[in-house]
């Protein structure tokens, strides 16, 4: 594991995809002293980023990566990733020999292995590196980064990723980072449903729930979700954070992988359906803690 105190010398870095996560991540690279060139499909966002941080912009992924030692990306899903990596204007067409592509998208282990193999054929390197820590983690530069790929390629990028990662760890071979992120999402799914049921139960019992959470958060039930989402769940506030649509994408990856390797994920499958209910209630962009809203609706009580 690499800690943020590890120093990386100034490098040429490209960053592709300036969404909720990518925008501040690319900003941390520029602030760390690297020469950053960004690409975003919607060019206005790249212009805005360059105005804010002072780096360069490019019109295509291939143009953005030309001189880069490291290319980082954070887009939506497998297909988005293929569209910025492959093809005539994709990153692999423009990268110089021996450069390393680091993918922060939460995607399948399959696409990580596929792009790792294509990279090798072209004399490039590919590291899958999904993140945990959400928008706040990206803005504050304290993400947890789970990596898969060859150890020498990981070693070359780890210190640079420290610009926005509090913990940067190589888990194993290509795809292992994405599999570790699936483990993370399986944990969260069951945990948030448990927390939702607990808060809804306590409210129904007439308890002072802020007080109860404050007390039990010092005991064995403590969690990041309780710390960071307990009060907003009580308040019925969901217009922020990690969107239900993204969570369903992630749980879909977990369930597909589970089916492939013969592992039963009954709670994950159930919670995925519950998130489907939240989407039907209009909560596609709500934070994942909105599972409690579904319970309140079922109990006949509006959030
Ligand atoms: N948000 C979180 O809390 C969080 C936490 C952990 C992991 N993640 C994961 O991180 C990834 C990005 O999340 P986000 O919240 O940053 O998403 P987002 O705000 O929706 O941003 C997505 C980015 O990908 C670009 N993009 C999407 N499809 C593309 C395509 N086909 N070609 C080129 N660019 C494309 C978008 O460009 P445009 O600007 O043109 O749309 C945008 O820059 C996802 O895989 C997500 O699951 C998110």
Automatic annotation (TrEMBL):
Q: Which residue numbers delimit the 3-hydroxyisobutyrate dehydrogenase-like NAD-binding domain?
A: 175-293
Q: Which organism is it from?
A: Pandoraea communis
UniProt-listed InterPro entries: 3-OH-isobutyrate_DH-rel_CS, 6-PGluconate_DH-like_C_sf, 6PGD_dom2, 6PGDH_NADP-bd, HIBADH-like_NADP-bd, HIBADH-related, NAD(P)-bd_dom_sf
Question: Ranges for the 6-phosphogluconate dehydrogenase NADP-binding domain?
Answer: 12-172
Q: Which family does it belong to?
A: Belongs to the HIBADH-related family.
Q: Which GO terms describe its molecular function?
A: NAD binding; NADP binding; oxidoreductase activity
A GO BP entry is:
organic acid catabolic process
Judging by the UniProt lineage, the source's domain of life is Bacteria
Key words of the record: NAD, Oxidoreductase
Q: What residues make up the catalytic site?
A: 181
* Pfam families attached to this UniProt entry: NAD_binding_11 (PF14833), NAD_binding_2 (PF03446)
Q: Which residues cross the membrane?
A: none
The name this protein goes by in its record: NAD(P)-dependent oxidoreductase
Q: What is the lineage of its organism?
A: Bacteria, Pseudomonadati, Pseudomonadota, Betaproteobacteria, Burkholderiales
């Amino acid at each position: 594991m690499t800690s943020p105190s590890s120093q990386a010398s100034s490098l040429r870095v490209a960053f592709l995809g300036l969404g909720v996560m990518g925008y501040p991540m690319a900003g941390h690279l520029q602030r760390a002293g690297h020469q950053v060139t960004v690409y975003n499909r919607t060019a206005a966002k790249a212009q805005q980023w360059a105005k804010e941080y002072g780096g360069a912009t490019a019109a295509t992924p291939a143009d953005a990566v030309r001189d880069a030692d490291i290319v980082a990306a954070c887009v939506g899903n497998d297909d988005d990733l293929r569209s910025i990596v492959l093809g005539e204007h994709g990153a692999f067409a423009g990268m110089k020999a021996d450069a390393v592509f680091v993918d922060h998208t939460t995607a399948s282990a399959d696409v990580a292995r596929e792009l790792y193999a294509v990279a090798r054929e072209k004399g490039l390197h590919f590291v899958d590196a999904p993140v945990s820590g959400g928008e706040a983690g990206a803005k504050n530069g304290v993400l947890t980064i789970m990596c898969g790929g060859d150890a020498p390629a990981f070693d070359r990028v780890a210190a640079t990723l420290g610009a926005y990662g509090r913990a940067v760890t190589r888990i194993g071979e290509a795809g292992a980072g994405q599999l570790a992120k699936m483990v993370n999402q399986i944990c969260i799914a069951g945990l948030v449903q448990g927390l939702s049921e607990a808060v809804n139960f306590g409210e129904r019992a007439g308890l002072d729930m802020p007080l109860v959470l404050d007390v039990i958060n010092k005991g064995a039930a403590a969690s990041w979700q309780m710390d960071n989402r307990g009060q907003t769940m009580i308040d019925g506030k969901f217009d922020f954070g990690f969107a239900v649509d993204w969570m369903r994408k992630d749980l879909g990856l977990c369930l597909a992988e589970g089916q492939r390797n013969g592992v039963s994920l009954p709670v994950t499958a159930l919670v995925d359906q519950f998130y489907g209910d939240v989407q039907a209630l209009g909560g596609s962009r709500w934070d994942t803690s909105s599972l409690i809203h579904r319970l309140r609706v079922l109990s006949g009580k509006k959030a």
